[in-house]
Amino acid sequence: MKVLMFGRGTIASLYGWALARAGHRVEFYVRPGRAAQYAPEVDLRIRDGRTRRGPAVRERWPITLREDLDAGHDYDLIVLSVNHDQLDGAVEFLSSRVGDATVLMFGNVWEDPAAVVSALPADQVVWGFPGGGGGYAGSTLSGGIVKTVFLGFCDGSNRGARYQAVRGLFRSTGFSVSEVPDFRSWLWFHFILDAGILSQALAVGGHAGLVRSRAAIEEVVMLVREMIPLLEAKGGTPRLGAALVSRVPARLLSFVLQKVLTGDNMLTFLMEQLDSAGQMTPGAGGVYARDVLAEARRRGVALPRLEALEPLFSAGRR
Fold first, then answer.
1. Which residues of the chain fall below pLDDT 70?
2. Which residues form the Ketopantoate reductase N-terminal domain (predicted)?
């Protein structure tokens, strides 16, 4: 399969590497002028969680960057994995250049998914979410991927041959696929979870401060719990994750989470990578909390715990 990764960000690079290693032709679209700023190869310092031990990968991977894209291209798949606040511009750019490619929406979404992709042909859009993270320092990429990739359906989104081709692509590349029927609600819950974790991490100085403190992790639970009515106000349906946060005593849930977040596992490793890559900062991490709080104010949903942290995440407004 011929695959275009939109941008040379962390997720695009991690999954682009996995697909290329499986024999697919992978290229990266970058904005005009950016190719000269990037090295023609990526120094990988990552863990590959598709196998149980998550082996370390240390390799120099040559990549192909391109700065032009027109509707006459022959890509089978375009993977769009950019920050949620950059989606509108990316979708607008692709709307006249998508050609016959399938577009995999592969990341966080806070607006209504149908509205986000309204400029694209609906039957060419497939929804997914990665399991990985990290960051760049120059041309060195540190981070990792986990075995599970999430795919799902937003209202009447594609469930046909294009969806099956994307599903088959991931499975043939060594990933397992978890399918989510109501992906819209799943995405929104994931977004408020990120807002709770990252805003509280700002309050305690990052990942290390968060996992050391049971009280800080309990506060994450309470932050997410108070955001669930906002998810419902947006039209989402709280499911298993929201039920656990709402019904399991916060003290018990924080005890379990602390055990997980301090264990020798891929989740702990990825959280550490996000921290070292500068994602737990007012500028990068705070954007989730800012958007959640702005939506809550528009809808008249009270979020006093999140509002109390606003001086921390508003300082990094971009």
1. 277-284, 315-318
2. 4-128
pLDDT of res. 280 = 60
pTM of model > 0.90: yes
| Residue where the block lists tokens 């264990």 | 263
Instruction: Give per-residue pLDDT as tens, 102-139.
Output: 999 999 999 999 999 999 999 999 999 999 999 998 99
Residue 77: partners with Cβ closer than 8 Å, 6 or more residues away? 1, 2, 3, 4, 101, 102, 103, 104, 165, 166, 169
What is the distance in angstroms between the CA of the first residue and the CA of the last residue of the chain? 37
- Name the fold adopted by 185-314: N-(1-d-carboxylethyl)-l-norvaline Dehydrogenase; domain 2 (1.10.1040)
**What's the confidence (pLDDT) of residue 317?**
52
Closest CA to 108 of 116, 119, 100: 116
Question: How many whole angstroms separate alpha carbon 65 and alpha carbon 37?
Answer: 11
| In this structure, CATH architecture of domain 2-181 | 3-Layer(aba) Sandwich (3.40)
Give the per-residue pLDDT at 278.
67
Listed in order, the ranges of the chain carrying CATH 3.40.50.720 are 2-181
